[in-house]
Amino acid sequence: MSLNPDDYIPTIDAILSVSDLEKITVKKMRNALQELFDVDLTPHKKLEKEDQIMAAKLQLSLNSRALRKELKTSSANKKRKTPKREGSTNSGGLMKPMKLSPKLMEFLQKDNIPRTEVVKLTWDYIKEHNLQNPADRREILCDDKMEPIFGKKMTMFSMNKLLSNHIFPVEEE
Predict the structure, then answer these.
(1) Per CATH, domain 93-169 is 1.10.245.10
(2) Distances in whole angstroms, Cα of residue 136 to Cα of each of 6, 64, 120, 131, 142
């Protein structure tokens, strides 16, 4: 009996439609076709094996090309398009010095400092003087030195809101 793929295709489709595609293998498919058509397909096993090897080699070469391309583009992206500025200082954005209100200057004993430093110094003072409520650590019980700025008590979440009333941008001259 000659091997004509057109004869087997409807049967293969039928087998695949009723089979679990996660579990069906080439060997199971070949055995089913051998039983149904009473034909010996073992000589074609060698061709199937060669096809598998060729597919694996092709996949490997495609992956290595993609990897080389990826490495090439990532190294190209690493090159800096504009040179880094020499002597740049972090004096912008959050690190920009701000003018403090007289009450806040008296509390921190500092003049023009960045907002981040104001918050850091305030937290240092709170922890040094143990001003957090032991029952609710989110709450801060202000002492006499902090009261003109924050009131009798505040939460840690409202600290920045209260500080914003005492921090102003420095006027450029």
Answers:
(1) yes
(2) 79, 58, 21, 11, 14
**Among 48-62, 66-80, 115-129, which stretch is predicted with the lowest mean pLDDT?**
66-80
- In order of 122, 138, 145, the CA distances from 168 in angstroms are 17, 26, 21
CATH 1.10.245.10-classified regions of the chain: 93-169
Q: What is the model's pTM? A: 0.47
Name, in order, each residue with C-beta under 8 angstroms of 112's C-beta and a sequence gap of 6 or more: 97, 98, 99, 100, 170
From residue 153, alpha-carbon distances to 22, 109, 165 in Å are 65, 21, 16
Res 135: pLDDT:
93
Which amino acid makes up residue 44?
H
Q: Is residue 73 predicted with pLDDT exceeding 90?
A: no
